[in-house]
Amino acid sequence: EWGQVSGTSRADLEQDNIRLEQESLIHRGQLQRMSELAAENLRLRQLLNATELLMDSVLVTEVIGVSPSPQSHTVTIDRGRDDGVYVGQPLLDAEGLMGQIISVYGGHSVALLITDSTHALPVQVLRNGVRSIAEGQSDYGRMTLKFVSPTADIVEGDELVSSGLGGRFPVGYPVGTVASITQKPGAIFVDVDVNPAAELDRSRHLLLVFSSGRDRVRGIQ
User: Fold this and answer.
1) What gap in Å lies between CA 101 and CA 10, rounded to an integer?
2) 20 to 30 Å CA-CA from 123: which of 26, 89, 97, 204?
């Protein structure tokens, strides 16, 4: 009889352990969700703070898709023609320039990120106004400056902003920070690596910028 009770108790304990493990898993999942909600709340607050620095009207949008190809840096957002989105429209996150709209549909749009290998962006050094072109390298954490002379007044740590040349991006939006400058033997130009300001591989809530010259201007929604 003692053995039967002992066996029953062991079975009960095993069931209790399984139940506790399941409850623990559920609780951990709930905690993860709470952490994500807290982080999302912080990101939205940062995005809201960023809008206070902008002179243009903006519209909040959310990333709903990402290109599966590592060579193609594009994202799909949940705003489209119905919201007044247009081709060439600048896209920001709370930290800086993300890219520009390349395709517009009724309820969504596709944006090309500044780190895509086909993207080139006119920039200038915030410190002194020296101009250059920042090109994507299909690397979310890296861009390069083209045709920089060894005598150019550009140093590591310099902040780069959009220059406004070409009319695609408004002037003054953060683009990145000069990470390194390398002079190769015999090279005419120096290699300048740039760390993008925007969190291109993780930002989900973004801002569409409507320049003051557009007929249809939308505010924050």
Assistant:
1) 63
2) 204
Classify domain 120-196 at the CATH topology level: Thrombin, subunit H (2.40.10)
| Predicted model pTM | 0.75
The amino acid at 57: S
Query: What are 108's strand-pairing partners?
Result: none
Q: Hey, what are 150's tokens?
A: 């060894």
**Dihedral of alpha carbons 202, 207, 208, 210, sign:** negative
Q: What are the domain boundaries of the chain?
A: 1-52, 56-114+201-210, 120-196
Q: CB-based contacts of 8: which residues, under 8 Å, 6+ apart?
A: none
In whole angstroms, what is the distance from residue 129 CA to residue 46 CA? 27
Tokens of 3: 């053995």
**What is the dotted CATH code of the domain comprising 56-114+201-210?**
2.40.10.340
| 64: Cα within 13 Å, side-chain hemisphere | 11
Q: SS3 sequence, 71-108? A: CCCEEEECCCHHHCCCCCCEEECCCCEEEEEEEECCCC
Q: What is the pLDDT of residues 87-127, one digit of tens each?
A: 999 999 888 899 999 999 999 999 999 999 999 999 999 99
